[in-house]
């Protein structure tokens, strides 16, 4: 079994950030090829979530968080009200991609709360804070997934089969 890793991202991540772009392992190409989607457009992230290029609750949440961070970077808003309106709109677009994905909405809500909770700051600072929050979400999801794997490993014996859905 091999884990996925690429330059600039920690081993095991299927969603990452590199050079102001989101990098996604295109799960539609697996298992025959490793193809990565690299984009600076949150609409492309939304498309990847909708078309199942991104799969798994944690990855969907992380992709959505990074997608909202991209929306912030793409914004040309001069003032906070316009910026927050754009963030809320982008969250709606990302949220419409998978209406039953709980991690998607959890991550988007957290990102929106972060944006609105820092509305007293300059737009340029809010953009950085959104990226930092997306990084935190990605780190937390990876830690939780690894911890769940460690707990599960203690329950399995050689030859056991695990079914996930």
Walkthrough of the structure:
The chain is mainly α and 165 residues long. Helix content is 55%, strand content 8%. It has a three-stranded antiparallel β-sheet with strand order 1-2-3, covered by helices on one side. The longest helix has 31 residues. The chain is elongated and about 60 Å long.
Topology:
Elements: E1 15-18, E2 21-25, E3 36-39, H1 42-50, H2 57-74, H3 80-95, H4 102-117, H5 123-153
Antiparallel strand pairs: 1-2, 2-3
- Main beta sheet: 3 strands, antiparallel
Widest sheet, order of strands: 1-2-3
Task: State which percent range the strand residues make up.
Answer: 5-15%
| Strands, count | 3
Helix count from the secondary structure assignment? 5
The span between the termini is 19 Å
SSE string, helix = H, strand = E?
EEEHHHHH
Which class do the helix and strand fractions yield? mainly alpha
Question: What's the pLDDT, averaged over the residues?
Answer: 90
Percent helix, as a range, is: 40-55%
Radius of gyration: 17 Å
Basic shape: elongated
Oligomer kind: single chain
Kindly summarize this structure in a few lines.
This protein is mainly alpha-helical and 165 residues long. It is built from five helices and three strands; from the N terminus they run E-E-E-H-H-H-H-H. Strand 1 and strand 2 form a beta hairpin.
């Amino acid at each position: 079994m091999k884990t996925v890793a690429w330059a600039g991202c920690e081993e095991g991540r299927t969603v990452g950030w590199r050079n102001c772009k989101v990098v996604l392992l295109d799960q539609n190409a697996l298992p025959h090829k490793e193809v990565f989607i690299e984009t600076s457009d949150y609409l492309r992230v939304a498309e990847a979530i909708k078309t199942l290029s991104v799969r798994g609750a944690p990855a969907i949440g992380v992709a959505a968080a990074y997608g909202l961070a991209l929306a912030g970077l793409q914004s040309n808003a001069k003032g906070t009200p316009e910026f927050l309106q754009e963030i809320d709109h982008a969250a709606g677009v990302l949220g419409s991609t998978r209406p039953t994905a709980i991690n998607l909405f959890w991550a988007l809500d957290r990102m929106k709360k972060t944006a609105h909770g820092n509305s007293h700051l300059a737009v340029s600072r809010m953009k950085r804070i959104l990226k930092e929050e997306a990084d935190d979400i990605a780190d937390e999801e990876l830690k939780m997934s690894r911890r769940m794997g460690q707990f599960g490993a203690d329950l399995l014996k050689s030859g056991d089969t695990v079914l996930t859905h």
